[in-house]
Amino acid sequence: MGIVLKSSKQIDKMRIAGGHVAEILLILRDAVKPGITTGELDAIAEKELARRGGESCFKNYVIHKGVPPYPGVICTSVNDEIVHGIPGKRVLKEGDIIALDFGARFDGWVGDSGLTVPVGQISAQAQHLLDVTERARAVGIEQARPGNRLQAIGRAVQQYVEAQGCSVVRHYTGHGVGRQMHEEPLVPNYVDSQMDNPILRPGMVFAIEPMVNAGRAETRELSDRWTVVTKDHSLSAYFEHTVAVTEAGPRILTLPLDAD
Ligand code: MF3
Ligand code: CO
After folding, report:
1. Which-ligand-closest: CA of 207?
2. Is the CA virtual torsion 186, 187, 188, 194 positive or negative?
C-alpha cells in the first residue's frame, strides 16, 4: 500500500478529528484525581465521543489473532505500565502517573493522541520523566518536515531521551495515520538501520508517540495479552500527537480546535 499522502483539504478534515480527540483528552486530564477508577475515565471518553458523533478506533480492535478484541475506548497505563493498559476497576491514588491514549474517527478521518497525567502530587523523579517524554515528542515532531528522512524523528527522540538518563521503548512505535488508525510507515522512536527510511513529503501524516522508561527499555506483556509493563518495574510515560508534514513544516493536528 505504501505511504498514503493526504491533500491539504484532507489534512483540514484530520485537523477537525484531531481537535475533538484533543478536547476529549483535556476533559479526561481534568477528571484524573485520586479515587477515580480507570473505568470511569473510559466511560467519560465514550460518552463524550458519542455526543460529538465520533467513532472509537480502539474498541474491538484486534491486535493479533487469539488476543481478545480491545474492550475500551481509551488505554489507561498506570506507573510501570507503558501502553495498552485496559480501563477497569483500578482506583487511582495520589502519586500515580497515568498515560491516557485515545484514537477516534470523525467524518472518516482519524485523530490519535495521548498524554501522561500526574495523579495529585507526584515525586520529582516522576515529574522529570513526564517532562522528558513530553519534550521528546516535541523534539521528534520538529523533524517532521519535507526533505528530512523518516529516521530523523527517531534519532532526535532517542538522542534527547538518552541524554536525560532515560530509555526509549523499542518494541512499540508510532505509525502513519489517515482514514485508518494504523497506516504505513512505522515511526520508531529510535534509529533502526533495518527499517525503511523514506524522504518526508508534504501530505504525510504520522502519529509520533515516544514511550520513555525511567529505567531500562525492555518490556513485558501481562497475561491479559494487552497491558505492556517495564520489565524492571521502572516508571514509564508516553505522549502522542498526530502530525502532518506540510510545506510550512510540522502541523500538529491533535490540539484543541481553538488553538490554531
Ligand atoms: N495509540 C495506540 C497505537 O497507536 C493505540 C492502540 S490501542 C488499541 O497503536 F486498542 F487500539 F490497540
Ligand atoms: Co498511535
Report:
1. 2
2. positive
State residue 39 phi and psi, 5-degree precision. Answer: -65, -35
Ligand nearest to the CA of 241: 2
Inter-helix orientation angle 124-142/151-163, to 10°: 150
* Residue bearing the CA closest to ligand 1, atom 2: 101
The yes-or-no verdict on residue 1 having pLDDT over 80 is no
- Looking from the CA of residue 207, the nearest atom of ligand 1 is 4
Give the CA-trace dihedral at 129, 132, 137, 140, to 10 degrees. Answer: -140
Ligand 2 is an ion; residues with CB less than 5 A from it? 112, 207
* Distance of CA 250 from the midpoint of ligand 1 (Å): 22
Q: Is 11 exposed, middle or buried (0-12, 13-18, 19+ CB in 10 A)?
A: buried
Q: Which domains does the chain show, CATH number per domain?
A: 8-251 (3.90.230.10)
Which tens digits make up the pLDDT trace of 121-135?
Answer: 999 999 999 999 999
**Grid cell at residue 50:** 458519542
Residues 124-181 pLDDT 10s: 999 999 999 999 999 999 999 999 999 999 999 999 999 999 999 999 999 999 999 9
For the full predicted model, state whether its pTM sits above 0.70.
yes
First to last CA, the chain: 32
